């Protein structure tokens, strides 16, 4: 077995190993958007249940959503972020709240 660092000969041609740099997949921010109808307590429950935040962390993010219009819940790979958005949106609709959860590339 040849070492991967040594050039290999194939048909009289020297083959040099190539370094391939693969950049990590892009990450996405999942955010909640403020509205005038979803209760603050419900937003805290969403943050605790879907983003594993403590009551204190969830309250800080909820207040950011309330005051600034949006708040970051977490940063995830694309498929995880999309799943979180779907889960939060479905949960909010089941409880008849218009809470908007969105994602954007970080």
Structural topology:
Elements: E1 8-10, E2 13-15, E3 27-33, H1 40-51, H2 55-68, E4 70-77, H3 78-94, E5 100-105
Antiparallel strand pairs: 1-2, 3-4, 3-5
Helix pairs in contact: 1-2
Class by alpha and beta content: alpha+beta
Following the backbone from N to C, one meets helices and strands in this order, namely: EEEHHEHE
Alpha-carbon distance between the two ends: 43 Å
Q: What percentage of amino acids are in beta strands? A: 25-35%
Helix content: 40-55%
> What is the arithmetic mean of pLDDT?
92
Main sheet characteristics: 3 strands, antiparallel
Shape summary: elongated
Explain this structure:
- The chain has three helices and five strands.
- It is α+β, with helices and mostly antiparallel strands and 106 residues long.
- The strands form two sheets. It has a three-stranded antiparallel beta sheet. The chain has a two-stranded antiparallel sheet with strand order 1-2.
- Helix 1 (40-51) crosses helix 2 (55-68).
Pick out its properties.
single chain; 106 residues; alpha+beta; two-stranded antiparallel ribbon; 3 helices; 5 strands; 41% helix; elongated
In short:
This protein has 106 residues and is an alpha+beta fold. It contains 3 helices and 5 strands, in the order E-E-E-H-H-E-H-E. The protein is 41% helix and 25% strand.
